[in-house]
Amino acid sequence: MLKQFADYLVFTLIGLAPGSRPGEALDFFIYDTVKIFLLLTTIIFVVAIVRTSFPPEKTKRLLSRNREYVGNILAALLGIVTPFCSCSAVPLFIGFVESGVPLGVTFSFLISSPMVNEVALIMLWGLFGWKIALIYIGTGLTVAIVAGIVIGKLKMENYVQDYVWEIKVGNAEIVEQTFREKIAYAREYTLGLLKKIWPYVIIGVGIGAFIHGYAPQDFLVRYAGRDNPFAVPLAVLIGVPLYSNAAGVIPIVHALMEKGLPIGTTLAFMMAVTALSLPEAIILKNVLKNRLLVTFFGIVAVAIVIVGYLFNQILAT
């Protein structure tokens, strides 16, 4: 239905030739934009209602009761349904540390929350199918859990900024909401989030449309295809300086996969963009000393590269 609408608009009303570069690029842009916004509106509203059961204070208390391993798994799972991003990293980190959440468990949450979320899940499901969506969720959770466990084992509490340990945040009262209040919250949250991310969606779809219509397939496959043994770390290096959320990066991933890039390479790129970014490093520098910050980024980057190679190998056989 949506594809027919996009085809009719581009090739009949506008009059661009099917198969032409501008026609294919514009068709991709219109189809993906409408589809993504419909998916986003529906799923964000539903998940926002679910999130009312996991306010920040309740999340902190829940994680503070669990130690390593179980705590890492629970933290990574909670990261999927909690509305945090790198922008809230500093107050979130301080609150977790003050509540007694182990350092490694805290990092499992901080990795999972921006990387694995409902936006990524529904958009991947809608664009690539449930198998790709579950692969991404599974690998994202694995990276968050393993990286958090490794950081916890390194016992790097001394490399948290000294002032963090001195702050006493205190515990806020958890207020239960009625169903009507949850619906109102979900509506406001959905509209607010769409207002924030719509430019990323438009830019991401625009880049994806350009790649779809104009980027030569042989060029992309030559430099980032299976024959290049350094394609995965290259994808991670390219992704780290970028700053986007899942809504902005998934249309680019869609176009790259259509051009023939292996799934492991594209997933590595997406994970690097959403979980590792320069703005996040600048924000976390306020609470982490250099050694812990570099260790955090290094462990996550290595884990993402391993995931990329693993899936390229598995799906190539």
Attribute tags:
317 residues; mainly alpha; 76% helix; globular
Give an account of the 3D structure:
- It comes from Oryzomonas japonica.
- The protein is mainly alpha-helical.
- It has one domain.
- It is built from 16 helices and no strands.
- About 2% of the residues have low confidence.
In short:
This protein has 16 helices and no strands.
Which percent range fits the helix content? over 70%
Summed up, the helix count is 16
Total number of strands: 0
Q: Stretches where pLDDT falls below 50 for ≥5 residues? A: 169-174
Task: Give the topology string: H per helix, E per strand.
Answer: HHHHHHHHHHHHHHHH
Task: Please give the alpha-carbon distance between the first and last residues.
Answer: 35 Å
Q: Tell me the major beta sheet.
A: none
> Which value, in Å, is the CA radius of gyration?
21 Å
> How many domain units?
1
Sheet/helix structural class: mainly alpha
Percent range for β-strand residues: under 5%
Would you tell me the overall average pLDDT?
Answer: 76
Shape: globular
Membrane topology: Multi-pass membrane protein
Keywords: Cell membrane, Membrane, Transmembrane, Transmembrane helix
Family: Belongs to the UPF0718 family.
InterPro entries: DUF318, UPF0718_permease
How are the secondary structure elements laid out?
Elements (H helix, E strand, L loop, with lengths): L1 H13 L6 H31 L4 H9 L5 H11 L8 H10 L4 H13 L2 H11 L1 H24 L8 H5 L12 H36 L2 H8 L6 H9 L6 H13 L4 H13 L2 H7 L5 H27 L1
Helix pairs in contact: 1-2, 2-7, 2-10, 4-6, 4-8, 6-8, 7-8, 7-13, 8-16, 10-13, 12-14, 13-14, 14-16
